[in-house]
Amino acid sequence: MTSSLAGRSEYAAGLSGLLLTVALSPLWAVGCSDDPTQHATNLIEADAGAPVESSCTDGIKSGAESDVDCGGSCKPCDDSKLCKVDADCVNGACVAGFCRSPACDDGRKNGTETDLDCGGGCDPCELRMACVAGTDCASGLCGAHAKCIPATCGDGQKNGFESDLDCGGMCAPCVATKACRTETDCQSGVCASGTCQAPACDDGVVNGDETDLDCGGTCNEKCAEEKKCNLGEHCATGICSAPRWGDTTRRCRAPGCYNYAKDSGETDIDCGGPCDTKCQTGQSCLVGGDCWSLVCDSATGKCLNPTCSDGVQNGGESDIDCGSACPCAPGRRCTWDGECDSTVCDEDAQTCLAPTCSDGVRNGDETDADCGGSCATPCNNGQHCMANSDCASGHCMGDHCMP
Questions:
Q1: Each residue of 55-68: pLDDT tens digit?
Q2: What is the DSSP letter of 290?
Q3: Phi, psi torsion values for 10, nearest 5 degrees
Q4: What values do phi and psi take at 302, rounded to 5?
Q5: Cα separation of 273 and 283, whole Å?
Q6: 68, 237, 243, 251: least surrounded by Cβ within 10 Å?
Q7: In this structure, is residue 141 part of a structural domain?
Q8: pTM, rounded to two decimals
Q9: Domain span including residue 390
């Protein structure tokens, strides 16, 4: 009995001392709770050397929590709560120490974004960024691998630099009624109020079937001189010239013999008829006078090349059908020896002379110059011969007189 009373006295004394210690201890030493029992528990645990563990439901910010009962190892915090890292927040965004709702400029992939700060309700994503639908991409195209892919001019969508569906910008120009930003977006070259216009003959642009600015083609207005054309009917002058050297474009010209067109009675382009210039071989003609050869084939209506039997003096001949390539007989006109059969031209009389046995050249039936043949003078050794009688030695061998 005595022993039991003694034990109780010791316990009471110990509890009294503990409560006294708690009463005298500052609140920071035993926790922030107003509950004396909790203070005592904390103190006992601290005295025992055990770590102080926070509770995610104790209504205080403790331990690794970033705010009251959230963050750290507790549940993520709602918006506007304190945080240290993104993981502390329900929406995964800790900005300047506070949790915030997903935003398109927070430098994080969150909310409905398909990639970092893009897609979903944010600005469209660039190429190769993640996407779910075409609306997530600046190109309007989300590829098979859930990545944004480039726009093309045949993808069936208005994207990239296009002004309308698959046209304008870097694509082919748009037809009339399609949307445009500049004149180059339109086939007609005319963009008005954001819409491509149909070609017109008064729009100040070469378009439609016009051959030049607002003229030619089906326009009532005919093109003036030097304007482009395809047919004479496109020109005010009625003359559309062929391309000329240095200019491969057909143009409207005034009538004349130097306009690169067939007009004014010419038999071919700028030749024949009233023109001083004669037509070349193969060009059209009506009479020989239209041709430089003076020979017009009546069957084909084309100028012919000169020949030695065409009955006219042409092609450099000194007389009709003779001279140059066609040697002239004695008595025909010549200008130099080579135009004559005899190779002797009296340049004063401009007449070919007959061969003689004293003219200093081999002609007629001579076997060499002024000897052999019908000449009385036989040829010397080494000169040409045809028979022994042509030689003074009486011996012709191998076309030459021999000793």
A1: 799 999 988 999 99
A2: G
A3: -65, -40
A4: -120, 150
A5: 12
A6: 243
A7: no
A8: 0.48
A9: 362-403
